[in-house]
Amino acid sequence: MTRLQKTIQKRKVGVTCTSLVLISLLLILFSSRSLTIRPTEIGQSFLSVFQISVSRIGSWIGDTWNSISELRRLQQELGLARRRLAEYEGLSRDLVELRQENAQLKEQLDFSRTLPFKQIPAEVIGKDPGNLFSTIVINKGSSRGLRRGMPVVVFQRGLQGLVGKVIEVSLFSATVLPIFDPASYIAARLQDSRYDGLVNGSRLGQGRLTMQYVKKLAKNEVQYGELVISSGMGGVYPKGIHIGRVREIRARSYEASLELEVEPIVDFSRLEYVFVLDTGG
Length: 281
Prior knowledge:
Elements: H1 3-10, H2 12-29, H3 39-112, E1 118-127, E2 136-138, E3 151-156, E4 159-169, E5 174-178, E6 185-190, E7 196-201, E8 209-215, E9 227-230, E10 242-250, E11 257-264, E12 273-278
Antiparallel strand pairs: 1-2, 1-12, 2-5, 3-4, 3-12, 4-5, 6-7, 6-9, 7-8, 8-11, 9-10, 10-11
């Protein structure tokens, strides 16, 4: 587009008025009735052209103002629609989370009916930062019958898993020592090969447990992925609770027993609800 055309577009109203004036003058000058120039007619023509121009300018200004008002109204409606959409999305997320929580609670309830011991359901409410986050705090305490030494279990991925044991109790909360803590020791047994050993936590993190004192002749029988369960010996943990799966077998020539690396069954990063078992001890 040329510069002249752009200028004409920007000044469309002025160009239109000027064109009308020129056309009117030509019609007056070359009237078929007479070639005599009449000042009155010229004045009336100019006045009529001016009135038409003013009317059109006024109409254009009115249309522009109405368009601006309509645009503002649409912007307000768009803002309101966006706020409502955000509210609906928030409600949808809350609904999904509520459904997931209800499904999880139903699963835990179904699991609790299968336990042979009296159990106290509890929710994980925190971890102890003073102990490198290795202890777990639950929302039940002595007011609900909790005592030191009571075992804690959870139901995850279709299996009953050992979480740890209660080590401190207050009126409305309790502290649990998890099985991955180095101070934790559990009398354990390989579920299939039936060899006994002692499982304790590792300083290397939550994903590591060590099973020691497994007889060396078990080397050819122990399978990778084999389940490790509590043996019930020692009286702290009931028999048959899942602890983890064998991930590595170490047989050192200078040692009389095997050492197994065990991966915990419980995903402690997803721990929300647990059961404290009252075994009557």
